[in-house]
Amino acid sequence: MALVDHRGRVSYRREVETPLNVKRPELISSLVNNIRGILKESGLKKKNIVGIGIGVPGPVDSEKGIVRYFPNIKGWEGVPLKSILQARLGIKVALDNDVNAMTLGEYRFGAGRGVENLVCLTLGTGVGGGLIINGEIYRGSTMCAGEVGHIPINEKGPRCNCGGIACIERYIGNRYVLDRSKKALGKKITLERVDILAKQGNKKAKAIWEDVGRKLGIALTGVVNLLNPDLIVVGGGVSKAGELILRPLRQEIRARAMKDQAKHVKVVRARLGDNAGIIGASLLV
Length: 285
Ligand SMILES: [Zn+2]
Fold this sequence. Notes:
Bound molecules: zinc ion
Number of strands: 11
Structural class: alpha/beta
């Protein structure tokens, strides 16, 4: 949670853990109490706050402010979070999916400044994606667009949590990269350690990031051909590997995508780091 001004500057930040198996009323009360706490600590009054923007980890109806469901927390099917919080706090609330919020943040104040069409990716446990088309978030017919992580890259392959087969997430999600790293580098390895080793020149570690970059490049080739974006912004924990992933990724796109699209698109790292989602959420207001 943070206080953000109209230029996207974060002046106050607080991190609150979401306990596993937290019940909905408790989580809502925690949100309300923390928001009140932030106002108190910062010395601001309600009237100083234009609104509260929230990026939620799951699909939402952003117009009505209703959470569809959370893939990782039970009991959130069809919850009108916007009206609940507005009633309890007396401040205007705007909701969107967290990856859409991050995309908006990078578009307005980060790596995507000045372009019209961009794809924003976040690499972590899951592979999330957000789209800006003609300067606006593209949400799709039922607000589910942008699921870059669930683009299949093979005809046959492992079954994905989403129900699909051989989704890119099923190959480059953190868990799967870690499994492969353990096989190559030993059981005690962590992704942070893979990153350090790769940057020191360890061939096995480098090969792991290269594989992630190449596979992602294959999935993104379809995206580049379909949408003809100016820019692909890559964020999330794994993106810290930087050029070790981005170089092979660009190579695949250049080798596979159609000529004009491939020539035009740029692939860069996200610039706002952990603040992208928070800054983007403020822009929802
Ligand atoms: Zn999937």
